[in-house]
Amino acid sequence: MLPQISTRFRRAAVTAAALGAAVAFAAPPVPAAAAPSAPTAAWAAGTRAYLVITAPGDTSAVRSAVTANGGTVFAHYDAIGVVVAHSTSTTFAATMRGISGVQQVGATRTSDVPADAYNPALPAAPSQTPTTLTESNRWDMTQIKADQAWAVTTGSPTVKVGVLDTGVDDLHQDIAPNFNAADSVSCAYGRPDTRAGAWRDVDTHGTHVAGTIAAAKNGKGVIGVAPGVKISSVRIAEPNTALFYPENTICGFMWAGDHGFKVTNNSYYTDPWMFNCPDDADQAAIIEGVRRAQAYAEGKGSLQIAAAGNSNYDLANKTTDSTSPNDSTPVTRNITNACIDIPAELPGVVTVSAMGRGNVKASYSNFGRDVIDIGAPGGDGSYGVYSTLPGGKYGNKNGTSMASPHVAGVAALMASTDPALTPADLRARLASQATDTACPADSRCTGTTARNGFFGEGQVDALKAVSGTTPTPGTYFENTTDVAIADNATAESPITVTGVSGNAPAALKVGVDIKHTYRGDLVLSLVAPDGTVYPLEDFANNDGTDNVAKTYTVDASSEAAGGTWKLRVQDVAAQDTGRIDAWNLTF
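Structure tokens predicted for S8 family serine peptidase (587 residues):
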């Protein structure tokens, strides 16, 4: 099997951009369903971790059996019948498999549990350096039409996206405005650590992923696919090794379900096995435990998006694995399609392949007919995905890790436009709105233009996903030049429309993105080329909400389409100011 670009993360190398330099390279209470039990013994050398699986519900009898047979209960998830046990006994798994009520037992590691698990150190808060970089259109965002989708919605702050990863730098200037500390946690070692800062990045990977999903549209650095939604960090990587063990993933999915995450992004595979095989007792327990946790999260309304992997490997025709286990000594083993990549190949998970610039598979991306669900930009070669890095920095990464968060961001935008959408609805809409992408001249790609092994249903399309249509070329006009809005003053931003004959439509779409504290000060109008004023919204004086990100529909059928239209914004009070960040017209 070809080595992955990174053995654990679904990404490649990163180049941090120095500030001002060229950028070409760049504690809430634990819910009952996830309540952990404190260990009953101190850490000792030789401690290994196990999943002990029983019927969902009361696990107390099995927990008692764990302690009676040389183990300690580290955490338990009664809702799915999973107990995380620690033991130094080499016969613990075999003994527990003979206990009444125990369905499966599996070791989750081939190395010792670190002593840090019993008294975890908090990740350091990185020092921050303000950026001088300003937002600009990036190839990955324009390729999926995210920049056009923002005219429909930039996302709702009621939508929470969980970043299950190495952690997130919540202090970063482009992440802090959208960071949700109340629902962030560390799940390293398999039980929730709700201490402030436990969620912080122990690498750079999770911060980069978070920026692609929801970096703020604030004039600094970069813009995420869904810059108006909330980001929650669920750190499932352990420090020092940055490994993502099964108990950590289980904890993360349970947390996602109990904390109302509409979407989670999963840019990793579950260590130490790249593929878990059901004919191995340990790996079978891993499959079942993580599957139950994912199903629990989905049952609570959470859709999981996952990266397909970076080995240029056909997931529909598995033969060998020479990289596992990656926490001790890897061995080469023969495998079949019954062996699965977790979480990418779990039922209900949306599996994402990576694309380079244009309609091409990234050179490293895994593929597989009826395994890949959708494609998205992941970068390749000199065209990397540019996003946030800890400490106020920015840089490029390539990988399916970078593709998956584009899809997670689009799913968050869809949930923002229609909060009633279920995970099944989101999956279906992602598929139906994707842009069909044909196989290249490559015999490994099988299937049809509508669905194939390289791109699944096609490349994700943010605009179609949120509006159901793509504007016809020549009918979409945008002004992204900032215009200041002063106290007790009027600001106007023009758009000159050319090439559109006849009158404007009866359903002219006016997309507005205004950054302004206390929007109750604002009155918005559209001014036609002949000077006719069409009121858009006079916000209530007591509306203390910040910013306006809305699309209005105007009956402008009596107006000639061609000419200069203006967005007029009146500030009718003192103290709060802002700017017209961007606005657009769709004819």
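Residues 105 and 371 are 28 Å apart (CA to CA).
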